[in-house]
Amino acid sequence: MTRAVLFVAALVVIAALAWALRRKSQYIAALQAQLEGAARELQSLQEACARLAPAGVVQRLVADRTDPGAERKVVTALFSDLVGYTAMSERLEPTVLARIMNGYFQRMSDAIHEHRGHVSTFVGDGVLAYFGALQHNPWQCDDAVRAALAMRAALRDYNKELADEGLPPLGVGIGIHRGPGLAGLVGSRERMEYAFVGRTVNLAARVQALTRVHQVDILVTEAVREHLDPRFVLTLMPPEQVKGIDEPVVTYAVRE
Amino acid sequence: MAAHALEQVPWESCLLTPTPDDAMESYARAKMGMPLPMIRYFVPVPWLSHAMVDLHPEYGLLMSLELELNDLIQLVVSQENSCRFCYAAVRGMLRIQGMSEERIRSIEGSLTRADLSPREEAALSFARALTRSTPAAASAAKQALLATGVSVSEMKEIAFATAVINFTNRAATTPAIPPYTMEQMPRKLHVRLLRPLIARMLRKTRSRGQATPLDGALSYPYAGLVESFAGSPIAPALAKALAEMWASPVLTRRCKLLMFAVIARGLGCEACANEAARSLVKEDFSEDALANVLTHLDAPELDPVERLLVPFARETIWYEPAPLQRRARALRDQLTPTQFLEAIGVVSLANGLCRLGAIVADHP
Which among A1, A110, B130, B334 is placed 20 to 30 Å from A16, CA to CA? Predict the structure, then answer.
């Protein structure tokens, strides 16, 4: 009788231990799955971040937790802005406007990315993109102008879609300039972005504004033209004074 | 065992048809003691499939660099290049050799927190820098590596190992060699059961290199790169790969040189760009035409095949796998199958060698 009780007790203990062991191994497996999920998310995050900053910067920031500092670079900046956005925003419902703008930003970003540029930021209805900021790119001017032409074509297609819905067409002005500056992480402790700081960006924005003056959609500066494939068809525009620059700025309209 | 991080990277369907070839597979088996699964995709261009086998550093090419560190270089470079095929293969090999999943993951995640020696950490940082940035930008990582006490010859072996895996990564990624079998391999029951046996087999076939003289004068482009490894078994292996590549009749030497020149320019490797320019002059390609090609990736002097391959070469310097594979698919439709395959081989090798060239140019 005692032996039977002991046997049953032993069985109960073994069963309890087996159950505890099973629970523990399930817990470990769940933790391992979480860990692997986190590793995959981290990898995806690093890949996503690599589109916003050079891979080396992302690696040092995410994995090594060090700020790699700023770097002097020659970059081609592309600044684009919607024509007539303010008037359109007053006429359309916010939900419709948001949908139109999202479609517009997506198409512009795709055209820039396809030509090896990276969108740095959306400024209101404008897009600021860089070529040669993330990776060494000796063909950055050709890439930027090809991206601008792709943006023009994408907008033409998008306008057909908008017209089918009875919505007004969008117009865009694009300014492109090439020059030196400082590339690196800029911002506060809470919010940082990989940015390019210097006169180059300001001039690209000023040149974009000149598209209204010259009634064209794509303008490049002399610094861009010097490095541009001669097969691009350009038209010289009259020099114009712009804010913050002493000398009148010579620009060229890109035809095709 | 769950999926690893790179399995999420988009990957197109394969652009090549495998061609089983007993002779080539025996060649790989004799040298490596096991089959090389990707080799059957490259059989139609013999120099390329031979180079895949002959340039593998761990089979008798490394005299100073430890094979274990070479494995880690392959891991971090494949991760950097998002090459799912090579990454899965290297990861699988590390697991078979007994490295824990946690250890692999810590190396992938952060070198500074992976419990590596300063020398190992500097070597892996150098390999990463050479892969992700221009050789000029990688020179700081090279100095840091040398500062840990690594000899110049060992540094050159690290650069060579990095160059070879950059070559292999592009050869596997550009035509989208299917990674799925490799990714599943460590999870297979029979692999897990036979792990000690396979590990033993691997240890037996991997070997250290012995000093090897470089015979004869070399007269083809980039021979200087080979000569900078004189005395090491790397030199004859590299010499064979380069000699066979230049001699291959599928694409013209001029076309191959143009691809090398574009990649050298994209990487900012002056030594390699000058070498390509000198060799192109010997091919009666004018300096003006070359200037045009290097500035705008086109020139009236280019023939139709060159006009396709010059801009394509540029796509392989920095890339994301899926967009590169889509561009390669568009290219494939305009070339013969062997032209397409040889073009992949040339751009892949050029990417490896131009990264290597800039580093060893300062250390002849």
Answer: A1
